[in-house]
Structure formats: structure tokens, C-alpha cells
Design goal:
heterodimer; A: alpha+beta; Arc Repressor Mutant, subunit A; three-stranded antiparallel beta sheet; globular; B: mainly alpha; elongated
Amino acid sequence: MKKSNLYKGSLTTIILKLLNENDKMYGYEITQKVKELTKGELKITEGALYPSLHKLESEGYLDVEVLKVDNRMRKYYKLTETGTKETANKLNELEQYIATMRTLVNPKFRMG
Amino acid sequence: MKLTTDEIKQIEKFLDVKGIVYVDLRIEILDHLILQIEDEMNNHGVDFEYAFVQVTKKWNSYFNNSSSLLFGLTFSAPKLVIDKAKKIYLKYFIIYMLTCFFLPFINDEVEISTFLTCVLVGIILLFSVISIIKFNKIRKSSEKTVYSFIAKTQIWSVITYPLIIIVVFQGLYTSLWLLFNSFIFLYCSIVFLKKHQKIIKQFN
């Protein structure tokens, strides 16, 4: 992931948000979607993506579905019910963080 | 451009060499590598061999052998496997460690009758034997998952339980502590076997 220190803490939120919008996704698809949405500004490395996906899975936020595609198995991740609730919490946290950072970086900007 | 069967076999061979043999990880990493190599070939007009080297270079550090105090330093596996195993097992290990804080009660031990001692030792041994059977079933399974790695490391902890009972078994608190810990192992072995079988079923 580029600029890793700034983005690291937001990776799980990014994954949850994408899965919330796309029903189910597989690992490589997530990396490509992030690259496409950020026009290449943000690149999730393989070493950061899978540990995050496995953490979310072990916490019960993600469920796994295996489908046969192109004559091989593909592992899809999708949100569980608790995962959907967690997505809303995480997005809320991230928005508050961004607002706080804005007030710090630009003191003229005030939180609503 | 899609990869040929021989090219996919070459990637699978690479994963075998790197020790990515656990199906729950192997399937998704194989799929990721195939798609990444295909994109590299299509976007940069390079051949398979070049794309393979470029892509696997990015993964190498995650395939390096690693170990963790959680499972014992004698057990090593690729970093991605260790990381996933840690995420699964850590919560059980924390509960186990928290129970160790009850050990100081050993100074205020309450003596128990021989009959109760025999009953408790019997239950602990029964829990341990069931745990060993279940962990061994995961370990010996022909298809491996990350749970197979955890079972391989934790079976040794359960095997030492009869020895701990002989050395530490002194009274009520110690026996309750041992009973609780043997229950944690029993619970882990049942849950892990269930999850292991679910993964195998999913991928078959």
C-alpha cells in the first residue's frame, strides 16, 4: 500500500465498505477496485490484504463462499449481518477522524 | 490472455516449494497469482516467465518461513500461514493465559477427598484424550488447512496434561484450574475440527 502509514489503519474500513457495496468480492478484485477508484493513488499489497481479510473473517464480520470460475476454485468474501453493522460503525469512525484531521490541518475549517 | 494448464501447474509447483499447502490459503493465493500474472502479461506485453518472476518477487517476503511464540519456535511455516493461524488461535490463548492468574491461589489450597480427586482427574484425562483424538484427526487429514498447522502444534500441549496433573495436582483450586484449561483445549479441538471439515467440504 502506498503511503502506508497514513492508510494502514483504514484498510479494514475500505474492505468493509467495498463489500457493503458489492455483495461479494475476491482478493484480487478488491485490490483492483481500490486501484481503480483511487486512480492508482492507493495500492493494497497482497501482504496487507489477506491478513486483514482473515482477521475480519475470524472476527465473524465476513463469510466465505467458494465458486468454480475458469475451471478453478475462487474464494469470495461477503459481509455477515454483524459485518454490515460494523461497516456503519467503522465508516462513522473514519468520517469523524477525517473531520478532526481537517480541523487540525486547516484551523479555519470547523466541525459541524 | 489466459494462462495455459502447464503455466498454472508451474505456479502450483512454486506454491508447493514455498509450503503454501493449506487449501484455505492456497486456493485464494493461486487464484490471485494467476490473475496478477495474466494482467501483467496483458498490460505490459511480457511473456509468462518474465511476468511470473515479477509477480512472485512481490510475494516472496510473505512466503518466507516464520515462527511464533504462540505455537512454539520449533514449528515454522510461511509468514502468511503463521499470521492467519495467530488470528484464529490468539483469543483462546489469551483466555488460557488469564486463567494462569488463578495459580497464586495455590498457597491457599483447599484439600479435597480422594474420591473427588479421582473424579476430577478422570474428567481432565477424558477431556485430554478427546482433545488429542480430535487434534490428531485434523493433523492427519489428507487435505490440510491452517487448522492442521494449529492442531500439529497444540497436540503436544494436550499430551503434557497427564504429566501436569501428576506434578501440580494438589487441591481444589489447582484441580479446577486444570479442569478449566483441559476444557479450553477440548473446546478448541471440537471447534477447529468442525471448521476444518467445513473448509474441506467448501473446497471440494
